[in-house]
Amino acid sequence: MEKDIGKITKRDDTDILLRIDDFADKRGFTIREFVTSERYTGFTKAGVRILSKDWQKFKEMINSVKDEDMVDPNADSQADAQAAMQAEAMAAAQAEAETEPSSEKPSKEELPKEAPSKEELPDY
To which H or E segment does residue 86 belong? Predict the structure, then answer.
């Protein structure tokens, strides 16, 4: 039996696959890297296999981890830095747009009034 549970992207060419499978006539839960490249496509040696006899213990350990235990202490500062970079990029783009001549045609009100040509001026 092979049942894919899901995958997590590690890099462009590497995923972490979670699956239930049978190996050597023993069922287990496998967490293993899967590489897709020109040289090799398939599972690597990196990973772990939890036998079905240890599944309940493994599940209890995973379930004992609280979401707040997994909060990255740098996540807020990273999010703040990313937001600041985005705001800076938006401001720069807006400033650039204000200084560049517009490719749109100006309305009649925006056009400068042209002086009449010499031919149209009356002789006094």
Answer: helix 75-99
Distance between CA atoms of 21 and 48, rounded to whole angstroms? Answer: 12
User: How many CB atoms are closer than 10 A to CB 85?
Assistant: 10
Looking at 1.10.1040.10, 3.90.1170.50, 2.30.31.10, 3.30.1130.10, the CATH number of the domain 2-69 comes to 2.30.31.10
Residue with tokens 């100006």: 106
Tokens (6 digits) for 60: 């209890």
CA dist 32 and 47 (Å) reads 4
Which whole number is the average pLDDT over 103-107?
A: 53
Any idea how long the chain is? Answer: 124
pTM value > 0.85 = no
